[in-house]
Amino acid sequence: MDKHTGRITDIQGFSTDNGPGIRTTIFLKGCSLRCTWCHNPETLSANPQLLVYPQRCVHCGRCVPLCPLGCHTDDGAAHTVRRESCIGCGICAAACRSEALVLSGREITAEQLLPRILADKPYYDRSGGGLTLSGGEPLLQARFCAELAGRCAASGVSTLIDTAACVDFSSFEMVLPYVRQYYIDLKCPDELSYRRYTGGSLERVIDNLRRLSKKNVEITIRIPIIPGINDHEEACSQMAALLTDIPVKAVHLLPFHRLGTSKYDALGLDYPYAGFPSYTAEALTPLLGAFQNLPVSIA
């Protein structure tokens, strides 16, 4: 994969929850973390993956002879997939007319993406929107992000990067010439819980935040409120304390939800939070007081 090519999972037009205004959000594949509550499991691996939705299958049988490794069987009543043999070639998904088989992960160049992004430029201009690069962890593909953001900047479209910031700062340095807006996730209140529940390092995140804040950029902190991990005032107070010397535009609390459950099923994975109820915005209201010196709201 050269610097002009990225691997993406989805392009979401007219997005309104991934930055200000009307946006196009591109989800990049691959992540440096393994958050136990992740709602985009199809973005975790950098490799292409097959999602299987049995309820959509019409048992046409087209996929069976097409698979080079014979991963599919269909007796007209049940369709089974040998996931352990699947290499994510996507031949079956391309032939599936009912979208029972969906390939997550395709390579595309910044040049190919640009017309899709610019098609909605009038909406960005009127609403203060633009392009959002999300994931997964977009900065694992920092060269691609820089290429795409640079092309957008030259065309009058701003780019926002939605990142967990658990990467080497050199990745930020690649995009900084073209990106002035950042959404940065703050997931856990201390290093021990961060490592336990995400597999990453909070120290690295905070160090990157401090270094980024000196670059004259706009930083919004996003905190997913997760049952049993950071859904109490003590944890929120600890996270607020981490931000005391870091200038941020806003802090957004994100209520836990289970919208990614179907994706886990489609990937053949167990979702650890399948039995937990989603949080309402009202349930998070008592936590706002922990961020008393910060511009906090519930997203």
The biggest beta sheet, please?
A: 9 strands, mixed
Count of discrete alpha- or pi-helical segments spanning 4 or more residues: 11
**What value does the Rg take, in angstroms?**
20 Å
How far apart the termini lie comes to 36 Å
The helix/strand series, from N terminus to C terminus, equals: EEEHEEHEEHHEHEHEHHEHEHHE
Strand order of the largest sheet: 7-1-2-8-9-10-11-12-13
Low-confidence stretches: none
Oligomeric form: single chain
Helix content: 25-40%
- Count of strand segments: 13
- Strand-residue fraction? 15-25%
Arithmetic mean pLDDT:
96
How are the SSEs ordered, and which strands pair?
Elements: E1 5-15, E2 23-28, E3 49-52, H1 63-66, E4 72-74, E5 79-81, H2 91-95, E6 101-104, E7 106-109, H3 110-118, H4 121-127, E8 130-134, H5 142-154, E9 159-163, H6 169-175, E10 181-185, H7 191-198, H8 202-213, E11 218-225, H9 233-242, E12 250-255, H10 261-267, H11 281-284, E13 296-298
Parallel strand pairs: 2-8, 8-9, 9-10, 10-11, 11-12, 12-13
Antiparallel strand pairs: 1-2, 1-7, 3-6, 4-5
Helix pairs in contact: 3-5, 5-6
Molecular structure report:
The chain has helices at residues 63-66, 91-95, 110-118, 121-127, 142-154, 169-175, 191-198, 202-213, 233-242, 261-267, 281-284; strands at residues 5-15, 23-28, 49-52, 72-74, 79-81, 101-104, 106-109, 130-134, 159-163, 181-185, 218-225, 250-255, 296-298. It is of the alpha/beta class and 299 residues long. The strands form three sheets. The chain has a nine-stranded mixed beta sheet with strand order 7-1-2-8-9-10-11-12-13. The chain has a two-stranded antiparallel ribbon with strand order 3-6. The protein has a two-stranded antiparallel ribbon with strand order 4-5. Helix 3 crosses helix 5 (142-154) and helix 5 runs parallel beside helix 6 (169-175). It is globular and about 60 Å long.
